[in-house]
Amino acid sequence: MAHSTFKKYFKLISFPLAFIAFSTIFNPEESNPKIGMMIGIAIWMIGWWITEIVPIAITSLLPILVFPITGIISGEEISKVYFNEVIFLYIGGFLLALAIEKWEVHKRIASRTLIVFGQGTLQILAGFMLVTSLLSMWMSNTSIALLMLPIGISVVEKLKEIYSEKELGKFKTALLLGIAYASSIGGMATLIGTPTNLVFVKIYESAFKSGVKINFANWLIFAFPIYFILIVAAIIVLYLFFKPRKKLEIIDNTFFKIENMKLGKTSYEQKVVLFVFFLFAVLMIFRANIDIGSFQILGWSSMFDHSDYIIDAVVAVFISILLFIIPSKTNPGKTIMDWETASKIPWGIILLFGGGFALEKGFEVSGLTHWITTKIGLLSGNNMIIIMLAACFTVLLITQFIANVTAAQALLPLCVALSISLNINPLLLMIPITFGASAAFLLPISTPPNAILFATGQIKMKEMLLPGLILIIISGLTISLVMNYWGVYVFGIK
Fold this sequence. Notes:
The protein is mainly alpha-helical and 494 residues long. It contains 24 helices and two strands. 70% of the residues lie in helices and 1% in strands. It has a two-stranded antiparallel ribbon. Helix 4 (62-70) runs parallel beside helix 18, helix 12 (195-207) runs parallel beside helix 21 and helix 19 (368-375) packs across helix 21 (404-422). The longest helix is centred in the last third of the chain and has 30 residues, at 461-490. The protein is globular, with a radius of gyration of 24 Å.
């Protein structure tokens, strides 16, 4: 007990002490003491984020306390950083996800997909992973894992009625790992699929206001090949590692049809949520002009005089309001979405966003970003693909041990500095870092879906290591190569 208490207080005190040390005796730049202070603040925040000795959301509030005291940024100015258009985009996406959960639309989508795919073990694995990944493009990977894992376990139990446990072998492991991995892979494909993507957009647009505009459409066009390659690779890797010991007979998909029948007819509310879901996707994809090389598709926002005023957050807020206006038939006098359901929005994650944005602002205002650009030159002179691979595999290693958002928040500001130092387009480093941060496949602690999977007690840690390692290597190579050859075309990088 005493040892545990000592470790707790050591973690609690050591990072603030590091801040004091860098603010005084270890300050690397005597002419600008704010640089050492900012390094110390970054170590303090990242240290508490990683150890979670203090709740992550509370750690994210440190800049509001420390920045004014150290004279880096005023309390008024840094407070404004915490609530911006990215936050509204996230809130809108999460409200839609809550509506999907409330009216069980996810179960209907999953059930119908399995009727199509559930003819064999490989088809079931592919079907589950595709459904999971597609839903994860719009909902948090944690929510998707929680929703899909019970369904996956029930399918495994049904398969045991058809085949013996010996015949199925380790297929259960493939199916459950597939749900966890697909939850992370799907989030890469859309701008709102994972908080990491939104953190990237905010940091990039804050640092490079005149750079290429990142919107829902050009992100999806770029990201889809990465999503497709990784989801196919994950299906193949998991099936090869954990396929049944011998070829099994074709499964009668009556089970899935019965499960679908239990859901009854599609209700009015489910139809409404599906309509709003597709409306959200269409409005997001076609909001801004889509430029693919010399080819352009005009976005619907061009119909308005001030089209540049209309951003993705505007669409998210419109969809949110719509959910609170459309009436419910099941609950007369109420609407599709209610505040009781909406209150489940994870405000802690929103504070985490704000803390990351504040950290990036501190890097900029304190002069730390500029200072780093004068010190970094180790990669200069190397081929661009080598630089991208090095950056990508660095974050792939880090994200296996800390939260993907934390990894992105720690490294993206450094990418800003490095790209300036090397005189290269920042997207060439920032996008691989962002995607790499989401490729957490190795350990239960790597990402919430892995932890949720491990918590079921149905998977052993050693079963995750080798397939996870292979997928990490595939991810690093895929992300870097797609960025080098497809990304430069989509984003017009010369």
